[in-house]
Amino acid sequence: xxxxxxxxxxxxxxxxxxxxxxxxxxxxxxxxxxxxxxxxxxxxxxxxxxxxxxxxxxxxxxxxxxxxxxxxxxxxxxxxxxxxxxxxxxxxxxxxxxxxxxxxxxxxxxxxxxxxxxxxxxxxxxxxxxxxxxxxxxxxxxxxxxxxxxxxxxxxxxxxxxxxxxxxxxxxxxxxxxxxxxxxxxxxxxxxxxxxxxxxxxxxxxxxxxxxxxxxxxxxxxxxxxxxxxxxxxxxxxxxxxxxxxxxxxxxxxxxxxxxxxxxxxxxxxxxxxxxxxxxxxxxxxxxxxxxxxxxxxxxxxxxxxxxxxxxxxxxxxxxxxxxxxxxxxxxxxxxxxxxxxxxxxxxxxxxxxxxxxxxxxxxxxxxxxxxxxxxxx
Length: 378
Prior knowledge:
This protein is α+β, with helices and mostly antiparallel strands. It is 41% helix and 14% strand. The chain has four domains: 3-132, Winged helix-like DNA-binding domain superfamily/Winged helix DNA-binding domain (Arc Repressor Mutant, subunit A, Orthogonal Bundle); 142-266, no CATH class; 272-337, Alpha-Beta Plaits, CATH 3.30.70; 348-377, no CATH class. The strands form four sheets. The protein has a five-stranded antiparallel sheet. A three-stranded antiparallel sheet has the order 1-3-2. A two-stranded antiparallel ribbon has the order 9-12. It is globular.
């Protein structure tokens, strides 16, 4: 392997240690994606970053042997942030940089600036090796919550805040923005446009994430009322509401089984419901079902089938999105709450700590934490 090739392979191995890893493939598609997102110089610098956000002064101690000045490093890191290949945040008014996962992360940051060759490589990787990696720990980065019209009236007063899309929007603090769906944009570019909807502006972002997208010019600012209107249109199209799997999500996506990397991948498993964080499931009253088959074509997870003229639900595949309930004129479909509630992690940090702990084990997680602490002291 030539020197440049080794740089990208080193970065692949480095990123594979993140909570959602970056597995190698026989085709080498993962290297082609890195070549799209990083120059060789940027790839080398990215291997010196951590999943823990760090100030430039600390990062520079690890890269100064390259002869690069701290000012040059700052410019390079900021350019990588602008390209969407790494993350940046602020603490005590100081920028802190860290590695980004492919998804949710670098891939989503390419919205509105995605080239066709990168789109083709993303489809191959996300629907293959990377898709399997996303479900390796069975802890999903997203959760499914019911569309508003599907919740039985008594339950509307009991539903948990993190399962109530209206409350998620009402409780959102700071900036709110909407971006185009990267998944549908990808499928458009490869000539496989969505068959479920013509909607493209369906990704809602809140707070710092929304501001970052606005700074990049890949989203537009909206009000809470506009956000609710976008969600209403998504529900009318039968899209699945997928917020981040946390108690205070930083985004909500409106997804379809045609294009969404998460849904397309999970549908390939025999029991998708086991891999999803959801508190609801659907059932059918056979005496009320008229056999219209509307729910069959609508279901994004292929959880519906007709048996003797009556709709049935495969509970191994149902993730409780509620779209079948919202569109059933006969009121034959109903949502039911699971006996044991799935409580999402408190925040983003807790979510990925849980995923990482499940991935490597608690003992290895402790050792990794010690190594990071020692590294941060340097």
